[in-house]
Amino acid sequence: MRKLLSLLLVLALAFSLVACAGGTAPAATEAPAADAAATEAPAEATGEGITLGVISPNTGALAVYGAAVTTAVDLAVSEINASGGILGQQVTVINTDDQFDPAETLNAFNSLVSQGVGLIVGSVTSGCTSAITSAANEEGVVLLTPSATADSITTANDYVFRACYADSFQGAIAAYYAKEAGYADVGVVYCAADTYSKGLYDSFAAAAATYGLNIKAVESTASLDVQDYTNQFASMASSGVQFVYAPYYYDVIGPYIVTQARAAGYTGIIMGADGYDGTPDYVVEGADLTAFNNVYWTNHYDPTDTDPMVQSFVAAYQAMFNSTPNAISALAYDAVYMYKLAIEKAGSADPAAVRDALADPSTTFSGVTGTFAFNSETGTPSKGAVILSFASDGTSVTTKLVDVIKELK
Amino acid sequence: MSTFLQTLFVGLRLGSIYALVALGYTMVYGIIRLINFAHGDFIMVGGYTMIFTIPVMVALGLPGWASVFIAILVCAAVGMSTELVAYRPVRKKGTAMTALITAIAVSLLLENLAQAIPQIGPNPKVASQIFIAGGVKIANVTLDWTTMLTIGISVVVMIGLYQFTQKTRIGRAMRCVSEDKSASILMGINVNRTIVTTFAIGSSLSAIAALMYIAQYPKVYTTMGAMLGLKAFVAAVLGGIGIIPGAMFGGFVIGLVESFTTSYVSSSMADAFVFLILIIVLIIKPAGILGKNIGEKV
Description:
heterodimer; A: alpha/beta; Rossmann fold; 7-stranded mixed β-sheet; 13 helices; B: mainly alpha; two-stranded antiparallel sheet; globular
């Protein structure tokens, strides 16, 4: 009996090992260029070389974002290495997977620190990034997240920075847009258990108060695993609002929320945030996709922007990976170049020196997602946003640019 | 009025899915007294089988739902091999507890194995439309055709299972095995074959449940069976685990509680209420709503 139990435990351990190996395999295959860079580096490097750590959800529900980050970092690093590296040193990348799980994020962070990495790009989501911010400050490791928008991620004088704007701005743009479009009464449906969704709701509500909007109806869901949103949107419809702010991710918006909201009788605007990026790949083929008309969202950049920097990034990304980069890719790409700028300014890749260079308000960075400097208090750039919408002829969903907002009035 | 109807219909929609999944739990438990925690993941297996075979069916000129027959075969194969590879050796040597732990291990194994297959991977997949959208409109609120179909299928499955266990030779053998394994062997029943058959039927039910699930909630991902399985298990326990009509009853209770909590109490409290109801019912009636209180036979 006891023997059997121990045998079972051994088996369970073996299973979990197999499972882990399986989980990380896709991440490894996604980064061939980075691996190539890693093997070439010692031959060309004049110094010790600079190592960047990457933490992203390469497996799990948000694996699209993980792939977006690892590919863009690959592209940026191979460009940098091809043009002589940073301060004459080649850059190598160590990819780690956080599985969209805060506990795994901390494991990934610890593994990078134990390998001596002092500069990290990651993680992608607010929930995961908030799990490692205090560890980063304690260890003196610079954390530059491409896309964690929750306000609480960065505090004054710390080692945490972000390439994106914060939720207090992102939620405010949505409220600003509602005001400009003439909606006095608005509703909100959000996930009470998710840092990102809850953070956006809070900032939307704060901005709505400033703009004199009346939040007439608020409904929430208990987790991101909820599959039925009909009751929530039926309540929106019966309250008579024509504008609902619904900050969720693409894997909920595409298959569930939009079609269910329309079936529940809600016909007005559904507005979201950068989590809607990727939705057109997650819609139900054969269903009536006209439901996706009247859906708006805020994002960091628009791939059809005619700015030469955007166009050369999109072209290089397409040449390397054969797909159009999403906003997370653009932000991760910018994050790598921000490190390059800061290291060159600091004259070394020492984490403390790089931190000071990043925090210096005179370090102005010009990249794919705009030209900006970090606010030295919050480690958050001041930059504009784009407003996009979905358009559908009934059989497919496309994205189109509605407006570019540089600052809020 | 329309809010009430809407809530009722959403409750029926969720409940019909829970009921169908709970039938699978209760059938296996009723016969071999094993809580098959991997049942939720069999649904995931069925879901992915359909994601990959629906385009094939459509190309052959058949309706998309015809792929459920392939899913039934795949799920039955997975269920039977789980029994042969994992449960049977453990049952031979261990206790009910080791079997239970093995069931949890199989569940995690299936979820992680699925993710390791490159064609499945970590990204969720979205199924195409399976049945006609829309339904019957009552006071401006739509009751989906899919919901009615799911309820209909649940009733048919429930009656079918009950008749099967009461009337057929294999069904009777299953009930014998459940009552007393050693006596069944003496009566000339092939116990192992009976248990494998039970798993084949139980897993086929998960393929049907998968069809109805993705027809209403078209997102398929490797951990989709986890919460769904847990709630269906709660439904089976609530109705009285091992009792076939109880599973269906429990499924609808859970679905309706979830939906009415969302509309009338607090939308973020739905899950909390489901489990609260479970605790209350189990305190009052430990054997479940339709269960009879009988002492464990020694």
